[in-house]
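agent: user wants the full assembly modeled, not chains individually. Plan: 1) parse entity lines 2) check alphabet per entity 3) run joint structure prediction 4) return tokens. Steps 1-2 passed, two entities, 638 residues total. Proceeding.
--- entities ---
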Amino acid sequence: MIDNARILAITGGVGGAKLSLGLAQLLSAEQLAFLVNTGDDFNHLGLHISPDIDTLVYTLSGKANLETGWGRRNEGWEFMAALRELGGEDWFSLGDKDLAMHIERTRLLAEGNSLTDVTTRLATASGISHPIFPMCDDSLRTRVRTADATLDFQTYFVRERCAPVVTGFDFDGAANTKMNPKLVAWLREAPPTGIILCPSNPFVSIDPILQVNGMRDFLAGSDAPVIAVSPVVGGDAIKGPTVKMMQELGIPNTAQSVASHYADFLDGFVLDLEDKQHAESIQKKDIATVVTQTVMRTLDDRVALARDCLKCVQQLSSR
Amino acid sequence: MIDNARILAITGGVGGAKLSLGLAQLLSAEQLAFLVNTGDDFNHLGLHISPDIDTLVYTLSGKANLETGWGRRNEGWEFMAALRELGGEDWFSLGDKDLAMHIERTRLLAEGNSLTDVTTRLATASGISHPIFPMCDDSLRTRVRTADATLDFQTYFVRERCAPVVTGFDFDGAANTKMNPKLVAWLREAPPTGIILCPSNPFVSIDPILQVNGMRDFLAGSDAPVIAVSPVVGGDAIKGPTVKMMQELGIPNTAQSVASHYADFLDGFVLDLEDKQHAESIQKKDIATVVTQTVMRTLDDRVALARDCLKCVQQLSSR
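--- prediction returned ---
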């Protein structure tokens, strides 16, 4: 199976990065590329911060802090303490080691390099050989509509700790985006055998990627099967505000809702054993299902789920 | 004596900051202001770094690393290690705590604040009440001419460790400078009773300040006595390349040479006991001399030298 695979994994932060790590254990740099959400990139203290790219880079290079789900392991906080002393904005925590990534990225972008080229350079320096493509080189910023105000994503997510009630989302700049040219080249180089939407938040991790001009059409028209892994398990999300958002938006907080969200292009759906009762109704939408353990506690769990995803893709290809 | 003083201290980095600390122990925030060299400010990794302002702020707030003469005490180096891993430029060391200063300064400048206002904010946040004026709000950059090339100051000073033979100096942008408006306001608010050039490198710490349009005329025309403290003691400099530069420029490496360097506006000169044989020839240039211990090892030394300077200023005023 693994010999003939060429997989594009589409991912946001924590949950998606876990499955990404599993896939990277099974597939070579020629067989696997990542397309990553940059809708929650933002400029903070003059630095260009790409939270989901960083989470993926730190996860793949073994530097991620698995307890917090963001930032690096064994991180230092001297900078933050000094910044606080100076009266600087301290609602977004930047670790001493992590800062190197933001400062170097900002410097390279200011030199005129594309985010894609900068990401390649920083990922390569971090020892990662799999291609990592930002969803686009343009500025597309996710904004969260709430009862009171429309908030920048990080303001909603970090500063307000996801407390405001969500009424919708804006994707500023989406109209001016185009698919990542390096991704397009990668797709042309050899057609993918499968596309996997990792278990990330559908609204703020995957949707921004789908908002990039051409992406939704690309997925709908793909010869390779497109599958998704549910980030919702037993009505709960492993991490983050997915379920809270569903409830506030009046969407049932089920794996089925996630499958429906992607129904226009989805060929297969991987859901947890706990949600097996939803499999049948998903299949009725002409989406194949795989019921398996999707909760990833250990590296073995990550690899096992990656294997299940690859098996699903292969079975759909041979239909 | 101290009751009626209103002193402007003109200073560069390490040596100047030591005497500045001594002065700050004796004079209130209404009695003492600092004018600081920014000719060796530079942009590094996208950050605006003001080495002499930082040295003064760290010294006055008790945070300075007295062993290295730059940066903060108890500094962490996690950022530098991570930057090195990413292949970033690591010839200029930025400590984890120190970074907060550069990032916050850069952010505030990008918001359109003047360097003076940013400095006031950061110094105040650091617990400093004495006014600290950058020499100007304009960009004046010291460049070092050497046999092979003209180098940015920090390239010469840090990257090349002062090794290249110096043939002269350029002060890029000097023509477009004007005296710091906040300094001008401070001078108008109440006339100074004395101006003290701290024991800093004449060529790369004090001369850039003198290159600011209006500064040399201001000093030459000042009603208040202008005195300088020799950074050269017994033919040696306590710290930095002052003597090496003198030798390369063909200037005798003596306290007398320093006094001559400022002869057009100098009223008094403070030199070390070790150099007392030079006092007479300096006096012949109509410059009063004070021979005292100028080497500052302890806080008491700093305060004692500050007291000697204030006494000298007072005696010159009453002539």
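agent: reporting back. The mean pLDDT of chain B is 96. Chain B has one domain: 2-317.
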